[in-house]
Each structure stands twice: as structure tokens, then as C-alpha cells.
Write a structure and sequence with these properties.
With 192 residues, the chain is of the alpha/beta class. It is built from five helices and six strands. The chain has a six-stranded mixed sheet with strand order 2-1-3-4-5-6. α4 crosses α5. It is globular and about 50 Å long.
């Protein structure tokens, strides 16, 4: 079965490849030579995942899945939310992290969660899978691994940030890991 993962993000590709079984193969947007900009105009993660999946499905007619994910911080009224990847306006993770840490100065409520929503389109039908992990925002950068906001996100029940964990540790509890687990369960049960 041909499947496209509607992303150019190398970090996401690697993470998802590690989490899906070997028998589920997929290609990235780079591998299918799709380089058009997909406007993420949705107000929710679900809408943005759907926009990406629908765009690629309409262009290719091939089964596709796409995700939208981000960080939601209580003390910042839900920001960065759907703007997580472009929060500082530069597209650079270190700038996004710096902006969050600056805005969090003096804010006691550091509760946050990471969320990932996948939209899978099989034979024209949409299916959604959501993963979420609660945690807190640290006051400084902790660790050098991972990507995005990993260096400032400490999952509930832990003292280390995602960036201080091994890929296996993070994937076993991450928002994306939980969503991929549901996606994998669905694909396995329909005998793909």
C-alpha cells in the first residue's frame, strides 16, 4: 500500500519512522517532489492536519496522512498553539523557545501540553487520531536533543525535559507517539 506522510520536516519523519512498524512504508513530500507551500489556515490542529492531508490527496490521489502539532501553555492563554512552528516569526526553534521563555518570565502557572493530531485519508475517507502529553515549561533550556520546544517541556511525572531523554523514552510517552500508536492500531486492524 502506498502512503504519503505530508511533511518535509526531517525530525518528524525520523520520529514517525521509528514508531511505525517496518511493514508500513511511506514517502515524504520531498520524496514525491512536492514543494508547494500548504497554507495552514485552520484555527485548530485538527483543521490544519486536514488541510495538509486533503491538499496532498487531491494532488496525488494516494493514501496520505498529515499531522499538526504544537505546544499549548496555560499561562500564555493557549499560545503558541497552532502557531507553534512560526511563533517568533523566523521559523527557527531557538527563536520560538527564546520568545516563550521571555513571555513566561514572572508567570507562575507553567502548565502546558503538547498535542498532535493526525489526519489519515484512505480511499477518500478521513480518520483522525489525537495524542496529548501534559507537563510544565521549564525556566531554562534543558538538554540538546529532540527538536522544537523539547528543551523547555518537562512531561508530567518527570524531572527531565524531552530534550534530555533518549528518542525511545520520548517516543514512548510523547503526543506524537500516542497519536501514531492509534494510527498504527487502525492501519493494522484494517489489514493494510
Amino acid at each position: 500500500m502506498e502512503l504519503i506522510f505530508a511533511t518535509h520536516n526531517q525530525h518528524k519523519l525520523e520520529e514517525v519512522k521509528q514508531m511505525l512498524p517496518q511493514n508500513i512504508q511511506f514517502k515524504s513530500l520531498t520524496e514525491i517532489n512536492f514543494h508547494d507551500e500548504i497554507e495552514e489556515t485552520g484555527d485548530t490542529f485538527k483543521e490544519n492536519a486536514r488541510i495538509k492531508a486533503q491538499t496532498i490527496y487531491q494532488k496525488t490521489g494516494v493514501h496520505v496522512f498529515a499531522d499538526d502539532s504544537g505546544l499549548v501553555i496555560e499561562g500564555l492563554n493557549g499560545a503558541p498553539g497552532v502557531y507553534s512552528a512560526r511563533y517568533a516569526g523566523t521559523g527557527k526553534s531557538e527563536d520560538n523557545i527564546a520568545k516563550v521563555l521571555e513571555e513566561m518570565k514572572g508567570i507562575e502557572n507553567r502548565k502546558a501540553y503538547f498535542i498532535a493530531v493526525f489526519c489519515l485519508i484512505l480511499n477518500g475517507e478521513e480518520h483522525f487520531f489525537e495524542g496529548r502529553v501534559n507537563g510544565t515549561i521549564s525556566t531554562e533550556i534543558l538538554g540538546a536533543d529532540g527538536f522544537g520546544y523539547d528543551p523547555i517541556f518537562i512531561p508530567e511525572g518527570y524531572t527531565e525535559s524531552f530534550a534530555q531523554m533518549t528518542a525511545e523514552q520520548k517516543n514512548s510517552m510523547s503526543h506524537r507517539g500516542r497519536a501514531v500508536e492509534q494510527l498504527n492500531h487502525y492501519l493494522t486492524n484494517i489489514n493494510v
